[in-house]
């Protein structure tokens, strides 16, 4: 289907965008990471990443048993039953390359299930040379949080979510993965 056909049929469309001045650095203390080469003002859309939504069966058979589990987001889906449940989705583009930071998070993200994208936005002014980091959420960490070691009193992700998973916070129920 061409873009004109999609427009004529009123199909949902989402423009894809990426801020200028970003690089992927291959060997940081956290592994690969996204860094700013230019200053980025607060509120700038950093990236609009399409997602690949997995069915619950695909999560169980493939995602759960591979390193993909470390790159997925909880995602509301009506994939098989028509009833909204939580499954997982893989962010394409830079969406899977942002590292976690509890205290130095400078990028926020928001799901848009209607067009199956995640929009990443600068939470504050970001200076050239800074790593762009998101919060994975306290319940999702599969590694020792480097920021938490610096702050022994910190028991959550700084977003007021405590120990609740995104699925629990969404009200759609917890999906055991």
From TrEMBL:
In this chain, the stretch annotated as Disordered covers 147-177
Domain called SET: residue spans: 20-137
SMART domains, A to Z: SET
Identify this protein by name: SET domain-containing protein
Where is there biased composition of kind Acidic residues? 147-158
Give the signal sequence positions.
none
Give the species.
Exophiala spinifera
Q: What InterPro entries does the record tag this protein with? A: SET_dom, SET_dom_sf, SET_domain_protein
């Amino acid at each position: 289907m061409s873009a004109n056909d999609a427009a004529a049929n009123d199909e949902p469309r989402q423009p894809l965008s990426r801020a200028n001045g970003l690089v992927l650095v291959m060997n940081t203390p956290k592994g690969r990471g996204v860094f700013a080469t230019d200053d980025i003002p607060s509120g700038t859309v950093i990236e609009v990443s399409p997602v690949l939504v997995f069915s619950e069966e695909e999560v169980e058979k493939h995602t759960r048993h591979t390193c993909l589990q470390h790159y997925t987001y909880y995602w509301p889906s009506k994939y098989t039953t028509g009833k909204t449940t939580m499954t997982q989705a893989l962010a394409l583009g830079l969406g899977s390359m942002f590292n976690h930071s509890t205290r130095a998070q400078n990028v926020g993200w928001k799901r848009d299930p209607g067009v199956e994208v995640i929009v990443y936005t600068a939470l504050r002014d970001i200076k050239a040379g800074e790593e762009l980091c998101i919060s994975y959420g306290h319940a999702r960490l599969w590694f020792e949080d480097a920021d938490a070691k610096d702050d022994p009193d910190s028991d959550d992700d700084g977003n007021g979510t405590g120990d609740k998973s995104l699925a629990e916070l969404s009200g759609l129920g917890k999906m055991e993965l």
